[in-house]
Amino acid sequence: MNDLDALLALLTPEGRALLDEVRDTDPARELAVATRLRRTQPAELVSAALGQARLRQRAVAKFGAEDAGRMFFTPNGVEQSTRASVAAYRAERLKGLGVTSVADLCCGIGGDAVALARAGIRVLAVDRDPATAAAARANAEALGLGELIEVREADVTEVDTGGYDAVFVDPARRGGRGRIFDPEAYSPPLSWAVEAARKAPLGAALKVAPGIPHEAVPEDAEAEWISDGGDVKEAVLWFGTAPGAVRATLLPGPRTLLGTGLPDPEVRTPGRYLYEPDGAVVRAHLVAEVAEQVGGGLLDATIAYVTSDELRPTSYATAYEITDRMPFNVKKLKALLREREVGTLTVKKRGSAVEPEELRRKVKPQGPNAATVFMTRVAGAPTMLIGHPVR
Fold first, then answer.
1. Phi and psi (nearest 5°) for 206?
2. Of 176, 169, 173, 204, whose CA–CA distance to 187 is shortest?
3. What is the pLDDT of residues 42-89, one digit of tens each?
4. What is the spatial distance between Cα 313 and Cα 306, in angstroms, rounded to a whole number?
5. How many Cα neighbours within 13 Å face the side chain of 263?
6. How far apart are CA 237 and CA 220, in angstroms?
7. DSSP per residue over 18-76, as a string?
8. Could you read off the pLDDT of 119-138 as tens digits, one per residue?
């Protein structure tokens, strides 16, 4: 049974009843449950229900238990859909531009369409994959948003978006060999998405990979990097907002750091404090803005660690108090950790080839205390900095 047939079978009364029955199945008991159910139910329907239950369990991290428990997913849909918190933030930005209708192109299973509709925005959700479009349609109905979301199975390049205030495009960035890094190899290509964005009356948002080269950002676009809970999730190219602007947005919050065009910070000797900028700040090339906030400089010209002599508050970096500095030497580190009775060791690295798990294995931390070791470079020299986060 292919993805579309499996989904359509689960949308029948029999399929929905079976889904309810297997909802909380423990993966360890799946075989026993499947064996029991196949005595009275078609084997393919049982497999489809158990597969959907697994997908819903995986989707909880992105959509929350309540929504994930009602939604329908495809394997790719769970993997590639936007986290609900990020989609909600983006929907509010579009709403703030006065947008009341959006053409959501490459809508996937409808995560962004749901967020837009919950913001009161009318949505045309388009995807060319039959199973994916069917999942998006089922999700709009399951969440009570069917009146605001129209789902269309079509090639997005052939859809007329003229009747909508804005467009949101989420091109496919995975191929048969994994992630696609060239924006022109997206499906559809970034250049097509940019032209579609420029035609939108009030604005547009294009979701792109966080690693997009800054030189690939059009001059008339705003570039925003978004992290959620410290993990970088995506970059967005905005049209109709602030051409040329660069920002890093941290969720929950949102907390937004705007680029001011500062030059690279100077390299200086390590101070008492080390600041680890959020990944969105690093991707947005806004480490200089953080350094200015804390009155600091860089440990190394090529590494995004900021150091300063005093503790200053910033929402865009985690501060650590550094207690020890030494050249890279595993034996000396092991001796120091044993002396400090460190049993909980957090290993962070930038500019080092050392693997954190390998280092932990070699130093064998034991004891009641905790510490953080930074494997990095100071003015080009491999260095270990030991400390702890400032609470």
1. -115, 120
2. 173
3. 999 999 999 999 999 999 999 999 999 999 999 889 988 999 999 999
4. 13
5. 2
6. 10
7. HHHHHTT--GGGHHHHHHHHTTTS-HHHHHHHHHHHHHHHHHHHHHHHHHHTT----HH
8. 999 999 999 999 999 999 99
